[in-house]
Amino acid sequence: MHHAGRSWATAALLMVVASACGGQSRTGESSGPGSARSTAAQVAAEDYDSSRFGDSAKVDHRWYPLKPGTRYDYRGSSLEDDERLPHRVTTIVTDLTKVVDGVENVVVWERDYAAGELVETELALFAQDEEGNVWHMGEYPEEWEGGEFVKAPAWVHGLRGATAGVTIPATPEVGTRDYAEGYAPPPIDWADRGRVHKTGQKTCVPADCYADVVVVEEFERNIKDAFQDKYYAPGVGVVRVGWRGANDDSKEVLKLVDVRTLSTVELDEARAGALALEKRALRISKDVFGRLPRSKGPGD
Length: 300
Fold this sequence. Notes:
By secondary structure, the protein is mostly beta strands. Helices cover 7% and strands 47% of the residues. A hairpin with a 2-residue loop joins strand 5 (70-80) and strand 6 (83-100).
């Protein structure tokens, strides 16, 4: 569920100041730096500190829980070459963990299909710090076209100039500064940014209706009037993806159609699938994923 067709070229890392609230919508653009870090609700990408992570692979964020064995299925559509194609995404929180810079991450396996064809399969790494902020520590995305492998623009914190970013702050609040969701310099060009756009929202999707929803807008600074909105429901996670702005290229729309806990057999199969992807990553991305410790599963 990443932005399609964008070159993530901005490296600036600004602070986001967040605290609990409800029922608000964005009141203005982000302000400049200046607030000192004084509470657990304040976080910025430059505040990353590996010593401030405890049981980091246990991601129990109110709006973004990543419980191993959970499967999310999304359906929608996106534009490709001015043609709107049916689009579906399957996301599985595996029971694997992977260490980055001494921080244990939960491994999330995502598969992305357009018009029934696999276009991306990805391993994404997330960790929660002691204050409850969820960090994106890196990813290995394989891009496919017509059944053929195209490329794998992997990035991981601390390698080849890449740095971790914030996926969602511990206590999202409207009106706070935008924040880096991770950064990787060229040729990867990952510089996605996020900002709390709305809180206290209600939304209905095929899976269910949800209240107290947080909407985070993602954008690229050097492309004006182009936003991807992600709707986070308490106790569930992302339930809807939408778009705003005349300059949004993909105009991606996704809705959660099912969320469930995998059976033991299904979880075993998911683990095997993720490990197979990791095996390719160790070969294809030797200078990034190949430099990390191998993922660990139950009993390792």
